[in-house]
Amino acid sequence: MPGLGAAAIGTEEEVLVLDVLRRKEPFRYYGMDFKPTPPMVAQLEKEFREYIGTDYALGVSSGTGALEVALAAMGIGTGDEVILTAWSWIACFTAIVRAGARPVLAEIDESLNLDPAEIGRLATPHTRAVLIVHYQGVAADMERIVFEAHKRGIFVLEDCAQSLGTRYRGRQIGTWGDIATFSFQFNKVATCGEGGMVTMRDQRLYERSVRLSDLGNYRPYHAAIVPAREVAFVGGQYRLSELAGAMALAQLRKVDRMWAHCRALQARILPKIKGLKGVATRHVPDPTGDFGFEIYLLLDNPAQVAPFREKLDARNVNCGARTGTYPQYNRDYVKTGLAHHPALSPFRDLKPWPAPGYRAEDFPRTEDLTKRFIALPLGWLYTSEDADYIADAIVAVHKEVCG
Ligand SMILES: Cc1ncc(COP(=O)(O)O)c(C=O)c1O
Fold it and tell me: For a substitution probing ligand 1, which of 185, 192, 322, 326 has the most ligand atoms within 8 Å of its CB?
């Protein structure tokens, strides 16, 4: 099943992409002269910052690139530690390693997001940031997280890659922490194939992100938004093309419609499955902001998960045990603890490897929760009849499997 945004691709995307092609301006920048930059990525950034309600937005080439830029913008590097959930996407871990810092894995709670209490348990004098994944359309408990982090002088990086459009206490995610990242990869809420965004309120983080994303440059377009204050330093190349920007712009304009659609579907299903014995649904810290594109059932008995899923599958109800995510401690690069050069591995001094904090046995809650859930995606193409069918199927399968 295509991701939300991919299923919504239509004439709006065609019109904007064709416009780029007809103007023959697929590249955002043309040298250091004062020629006006082409409009698409600039317009995307403008509408993006207005949409989520922040001061600065910078288009980049992917969500992974956005994480690498955001970490470097905060000045995170060798000797630093960054807390993130063991249950998070590959790039969350690898971006920290590539910055030269050490990822410190934390437990999730019933929201499948970071348990805010983990910040107090894991923070050390070396902790510089906590990377929050808003996992699959549900905001983490940001009020508690920001409080726990900021009182310790720790930056909050919100990874909103999976959850653009999700709200928490009336505000969009991405506006709670110090810096936020988004992805327009194919499976995301809004897609342009590959692309990303970094957002922030702080002018210095913006300037540093621009330089990091564009070979150290700070071009007139950005200087017109806010004048440069930093001295030049080495950057990478994470620019977003005009073609990708055009498509992302058309998709961004659809996010609220997708949000309303998914919430309406979810509202038909949740009341019908509430109270089923032995089955809880994912804890949502703020249900009014939930995107609703995926329903998570948490079964009390892990042995019932496989038969439950098989029976849903047999009824043609799309469901999965995981959505590309699996625990970091089970991934190959965590098992080896290597970076591309041995001296760059933040784990080089931890012996024997895997050290405590990087083994499955160190995460009893993450192990337990992720073995007990069933994920049911809801899509842009799903109708109310589909939602009713899914709810009825869950009730029927529950009767068969859980008695
Ligand atoms: C939580 C999270 N962070 C980061 C990324 C990386 O985004 P991208 O695939 O655009 O590099 C993803 C995407 O798959 C993700 O789900």
Answer: 185
Residue nearest to atom 10 of ligand 1 (CA): 63
Q: Count the domains in the chain.
A: 2
116 shares a domain with 43: yes
Sheet containing 294-299: give its strands across. Answer: 279-281, 294-299, 373-377
CA of 89 to the centre of ligand 1 (A): 7
Name the residue of 4, 60, 61, 64 whose CB sits within 8 Å of the most ligand 1 atoms, as the mutation to test its pocket: 64
Distance 159 CA to ligand 1 centre (A): 8
Q: Going by CA atoms, what residue is nearest to atom 7 of ligand 1?
A: 63
Strands 81-85 and 127-133: parallel
Pocket of ligand 1 (CB under 6 A): 62-64, 67, 89, 91-92, 133, 159, 161-162, 183, 185, 196
Residue range 88-145, pLDDT digits in tens: 999 999 999 999 999 999 999 999 999 999 999 999 999 999 999 999 999 999 999 9
Q: What is the pTM of this model?
A: 0.97
- Tally of CA atoms within 13 A in the half-sphere of 231 that contains its CB: 0
pLDDT tens-place string over residues 296-339: 999 999 999 999 999 999 999 988 755 667 899 999 989 999 99
- The CA 184 to ligand 1 mean position distance, Å, reads 8
- Shared domain for 67 and 184, answered yes or no, is yes
Nearest to 394 by CA among 266, 260, 263: 266
Residue 124 lies in a domain: yes
Catalytic residues: 188
* Angle at the Cα of 367 from the Cα atoms of 303 and 93, rounded to 5 degrees: 140
Last residue within a domain, chosen from 222, 252, 282:
252
Does residue 372 sit in the same domain as residue 267? Answer: yes
Residue closest by Cα to atom 5 of ligand 1: 63
Same domain, yes or no, for 247 and 392?
no
- The C-alpha angle 162, 164, 169, rounded to 5 degrees, equals 110
Q: How many angstroms separate the Cα of 22 from the Cα of each of 19, 44, 77, 251, 319? A: 5, 19, 43, 20, 42
- Atom of ligand 1 minimally distant from the CA of 184: 10
